[in-house]
């Protein structure tokens, strides 16, 4: 079982989009049973009294445009123990990586990477909360997820 945790600031836009895009991809490849895929936040801004907010409506709408449901997803915060539990912690931007390192006590490397690094791009996945361009974020996430699956294929962890 390959365990992946996507991480962004609030866990209402980018990381849940990545979670559900990858879930959709592995389902279509018929390998969903080989994965555990989740997402989390580095902040508590979207968590109130222990209950996380749902996926931000424009992010949810973007996923739905592509036939992907994210129903039931609520924001959760990254825990230090997630480093030991997950095989891959994938952040969306440099600040996410910095916060992942701080929160887990581990440095970036094979286990902690930025999403578009798998595509050989040093770019960040822009936060659509600020850009308002949910389609551009979806496109970057799709590129990153495809590249991540290719990475796993090249490592011999999956066969597609």
From TrEMBL:
Keywords for this protein: Hydrolase, Protein phosphatase
Phosphotyrosine protein phosphatase I domain span: 2-151
PANTHER family: LOW MOLECULAR WEIGHT PHOSPHOTYROSINE PROTEIN PHOSPHATASE, LOW MOLECULAR WEIGHT PROTEIN TYROSINE PHOSPHATASE
Catalysed reactions, as listed in the record: O-phospho-L-tyrosyl-[protein] + H2O = L-tyrosyl-[protein] + phosphate
Listed name of the protein: protein-tyrosine-phosphatase
Family of the protein in this entry: Belongs to the low molecular weight phosphotyrosine protein phosphatase family.
SUPFAM superfamilies for this protein: Phosphotyrosine protein phosphatases I
Annotated EC: 3.1.3.48
InterPro entries linked to this entry: LMW_PTPase, Ptyr_pPase, Ptyr_pPase_sf, Tyr_phospatase_low_mol_wt
CDD domains recorded: LMWPTP
Pfam families, A to Z: LMWPc
Enzyme class: hydrolase
Gene Ontology terms, MF aspect: protein tyrosine phosphatase activity
Active site residues of this protein: 8 (nucleophile), 14, 127 (proton donor)
